[in-house]
Design brief:
Elements (H helix, E strand, L loop, with lengths): L2 H16 L4 H55 L11 H4 L6 H23 L10 H11 L1 H18 L6 H15 L3 E2 L2 E2 L8 H17 L3 H12 L3 H16 L8 H21 L3 H24 L3 H4 L11 H29 L3
Antiparallel strand pairs: 1-2
Helix pairs in contact: 1-2, 4-6, 4-7, 4-10, 4-11, 6-7, 6-8, 7-8, 7-10, 10-11, 10-12, 10-14, 11-12, 12-14
Length: 356
């Protein structure tokens, strides 16, 4: 095989490797890297023959594969998101949101409380909807929970279009939670999990994500989500908070005379905790704000059961007037929520201590 074929084969392999890099990297460095590789291969072929050129090419390809992985990692997890994250995030923590943006983050929690109150005020529950299209229409028109889910999906779509600002995490969490919850809905004494409707909420959520990808003609919306999770580990704590706030606000099977007051107060407390979480700068105080909000809601829940004779309502045997298991469980949950915050704090300390 003559020199030109050797060099042409190595050049083709290297240009194929360059196509694996992120597009901006290819546009900026592709031509220069190809030129340097071709020049070095020609020089090595002249000095050491085909064996030398082959050895150089294999080393360059191996190094290039490692560099491809590194460049994609940087692009997905370390690229600066729009408007909110600064270059010093790993050293100083995530920047707090403005009062308005923090209010946007807390809005789904208040909206869920409102939906729950409206649901309790309906004269006929959705669960009694008739079968067929008529029943489906009634569910769509008369279910405040469904409209709440649509509201969360719209908020998520707006956030994805804007580069996934931090307040969008609230709408993403509620959208995922709503899809899980709604897939277990029962109507007309039939469980939806035996029908195609079980998959419908998840399909709608996936369609929303796919639509964002298509409209922006890139995978950036999904990368924005992954990058936000990597940059702010306390979002894991926020996800735990969202689930337990849902439990505390829904007051399932509760018939306290002041039930609507308990629901509304719990929803406002959850919203206040979220507002403080997104307004504070340091990771540990942020999670402590969420934990405090959960603890207050747990006390409210205990108070609700202590002042309502639920045992007589459900024909249960007599027992203690006040049960504090909910509060103790919430304290354990709060301790678990602090783990990502402590890990983020240790990470920032390590970066501060690193030279340079």
């Amino acid at each position: 095989m003559n020199a030109s074929r050797w060099l042409e084969g190595l050049g083709s392999l290297y240009r194929g490797l360059l196509r694996l890099y992120p597009a901006p990297f290819q546009q900026r460095f592709g031509a220069e890297m190809t030129q340097v590789f071709d020049t070095l291969c020609r020089q090595e072929y002249t000095a050491a023959g085909a064996d030398g050129a082959l050895q150089l090419g294999l080393l360059a390809l191996a190094d290039g594969l490692h560099s491809v992985v590194q460049q994609w990692w940087i692009r997905i997890f370390q690229r600066r998101p729009a408007m909110e994250i600064t270059s010093s995030d790993l050293h100083s923590g995530v920047s707090p949101l403005s009062p308005f943006q923090a209010g946007l983050a807390g809005l789904p929690f208040a909206a869920f409380g409102l939906a729950n109150i409206v649901e309790r005020l309906l004269p006929f529950p959705v669960i009694a909807a008739p079968p067929g299209l008529l029943g489906l229409a009634q569910i769509v028109l008369r279910s405040p929970y469904l409209w709440f889910g649509i509201f969360c999906l719209i908020g998520l779509g707006i956030g994805l279009a804007k580069g996934f600002p931090r307040w969008t995490a609230s709408y993403l969490g509620w959208s995922v939670l709503f899809c899980w919850w709604w897939s277990n809905l029962a109507a007309n004494a039939e469980r939806w999990d035996e029908k195609v409707w079980r998959a419908l909420p998840g399909v709608v959520l996936l369609a929303m994500l796919l639509l964002a990808v298509l409209l922006r003609r890139s995978w950036r919306p999904l990368r924005d989500i992954l990058r936000s999770l990597w940059q702010d580990w306390t979002l894991a704590s926020f996800a735990v908070f969202t689930f337990f706030a849902f439990i505390f606000v829904v007051y399932d099977e509760n018939h306290h005379p002041l039930l609507l007051l308990f629901i509304g107060t719990s929803a406002l407390i959850a919203s206040a905790g979220v507002w403080a979480y997104f307004r504070l700068k340091s990771s540990i105080p942020r999670v402590l704000a969420l934990a405090a909000s959960l603890l207050v809601m747990a006390v409210l829940s205990t108070w609700s059961y202590a002042t309502w004779d639920y045992r007589a309502y459900y024909n249960l045997p007599a027992g203690p007037t006040v049960e504090w298991q909910t509060v103790w469980t919430t304290l354990v949950v709060a301790a678990v929520m602090l783990v990502p915050a402590l890990a983020a704090w240790l990470r920032r300390r390590a970066h501060r201590a690193a030279p340079g």
